[in-house]
Design goal:
heterodimer, A: 58 residues, mainly alpha, B: 464 residues, Hydantoin permease, 19 helices, globular
């Protein structure tokens, strides 16, 4: 469980930063980047908040 | 019920306020690295970076000024604050009490609390600019001092009330949330800046410097703003946290360090928060200016929203809130040291009200650079007093910790030094026209000299 949360939150953090490089190299649009950032934010905070107690207990 | 539970919990927390921190509670370098990085990536970073752009600093002046200024700040933490912190392992307040006496420490606490209120106020105002986006509240201009209207006051009042309420309940949970949010905030700052570079004309990393000089840090200030040079940036980066390093406030944190070298961990905060975040927020503001025909309106929430969408606005809210909250809590603690009988939640409520009132005035955000410099300058003399008292006095035959030694409530020499050094700095500024950012350096040496002289004469009366 802990590993799964770690993987999901790490993907969230990566989705916050990497799409911006896509915009820089003209692979992604600014709007797509903004959407990825929102998804990344949800993936980063969601599990950390929902499974907070489980993470703390472990 | 909830308050009772929290009060019991708070009473159980042992912070070693009047004793040395035991070895079992000491922490390693890494924990300080993360703490500093998180603490110095705050809501105010969304203001400071853009204000450098508004003040027309040149690109190379900014990049090298920040590099060197932050380096000097790290050295100040490592060589001035940290060694005394790990040798004594007591809080700044207890150290001051031993040197200056209880009453003078109370005066320091009062000033400190007031400064914390204004600082938290600026963070609430920053958050409010993001929350106000859906309501189309008119943004304040860089030259504005007074609230733009009732809608702005209402938004600030709501943000202030929520922040104060949460601070009243203690700040354990907020601290945990801040720890989660810190890496995300740094990534949002970076991502937002990288993504807008093509709109500014950066087509490859190779032409970044050229575009930076032409379109971001152009060297030309906006109308009504003074011109900043390399020296402004260097001294601002060095002294914006003067109260913490040279002013010794971080003794309270670094006393938990295993070794004095933990002071170098401040580099985490300086080069992430005070370099990357300031550069990134400057880039975002440059694009905002370009898109809005150099409009003087300035709302960090709007700037972040236009660059990074909802995530950007959320980042401004989170950055402002997670730093305003502990700042209000700290202001409450500083005030409670003066009024120990008063309930913590009542004091936090008073502090929150002052903070919210201050946040209504855009001047707090627009003049943030001056305020931060003033904040450090006012509290710096007490750090210089500790430094001289600790290292120099035993070597020149003067007594250290005079208030503790002679059971004094008021060390007159320390008071003369504090007020005298501030008055001297004021005179220097008036007669030479030296700006507030530069006063800390001569101010420190003046404080040292004043403290040695006044103590020499003051301590004579005790040897008779």
């Amino acid at each position: 469980m802990k590993i799964a949360i770690k993987i999901i939150t790490s993907i969230g953090l990566l989705l916050t930063i990497f799409p911006s490089l896509g915009v820089f190299y003209e692979v992604l649009s600014q709007e797509e980047n903004k959407n990825f950032m929102v998804i990344g934010t949800i993936l980063w905070f969601g599990p950390k908040i929902i499974f907070k107690e489980k993470l703390e207990n472990k | 019920m909830l308050l009772e539970k929290l009060t019991t919990h708070l009473e159980e927390v042992k912070e070693y306020e009047r004793e040395s921190v035991p070895a079992s509670r000491w922490r390693g370098f890494k924990s300080f690295l993360g703490m500093y990085a998180g603490e110095h990536t705050a809501g105010t970073e969304f203001v400071i970076g853009p204000l450098f752009v508004a003040h027309g600093v040149g690109a190379m002046d900014l990049l090298f000024g920040l590099l060197l200024g932050n380096f000097l700040a790290v050295l100040s933490w490592a060589f001035i604050c940290s060694p005394i912190a790990v040798r004594e392992r007591v809080t700044l307040y207890y150290m001051l009490e031993k040197i200056c006496g209880k009453h003078l420490t109370n005066a320091y606490n009062l000033v400190n609390a007031l400064m914390f209120c204004f600082l938290a106020g600026s963070m609430i105002a920053v958050s409010a600019t993001a929350i106000g986006i859906p309501f189309n509240i008119p943004s304040a201009k860089l030259t504005d001092w007074l609230p733009s209207g009732l809608p702005w006051i209402l938004i600030v009042a709501i943000v202030g009330a929520v922040t104060t309420f949460v601070a009243t309940l203690g700040y354990d949970k907020v601290e945990k949330f801040s720890t989660i949010a810190a890496p995300w905030m740094i990534f949002v700052f970076l991502a937002a800046a990288i993504a807008v570079l093509p709109e500014l004309g950066v087509t490859s990393w190779g032409n970044f410097l050229q575009v930076a000089q032409d379109k971001i840090w152009t060297g030309t200030p906006l109308p009504g703003q003074s011109k900043f040079t390399f020296w402004h940036i260097l001294f601002f980066a060095w002294f914006c946290n003067m109260a913490m390093h040279i002013g010794m406030a971080d003794m309270s944190i670094l006393r938990y360090a295993k070794k004095w070298t933990a002071g170098f961990a401040s580099a985490g905060g300086m080069y992430v928060g005070h370099y990357i975040a300031w550069v990134a927020s400057g880039i975002l503001y440059a694009l905002f200016l370009q898109q809005n025909n150099q409009n003087l309106e300035f709302a960090p929430g709007q700037v972040a929203y236009s660059a990074a969408g909802i995530t950007g606005a959320l980042c401004v809210i989170v950055a402002g809130w997670t730093t305003a909250n502990p700042t209000i809590y700290r202001a409450g603690l500083a005030l409670q040291a003066i009024m120990p009988q008063a309930k913590t939640w009542k004091i936090t409520l008073i502090v929150g009200s002052i903070t919210t009132l201050a946040a209504c005035f855009p001047a707090l955000v627009m003049q943030l650079l001056d305020f931060v410099a003033l904040y450090g300058l006012i509290l710096m003399p007490m750090g210089a007093i500790i430094f001289i008292d600790y290292w120099l006095f035993p070597r020149i035959g003067l007594s250290s910790n005079l208030a503790e030694l002679k059971n004094l409530n008021f060390n007159v020499a320390a008071l003369i030094t504090w007020l005298g050094s501030l008055f001297s700095c004021f005179l220097i500024a008036k007669t030479t026209g030296l700006e507030i950012f530069f006063l800390g350096l001569p101010g420190w040496f003046l404080t040292a000299l004043l403290y040695i002289l006044s103590s020499y004469f003051y301590q004579k009366r005790f040897s008779k």
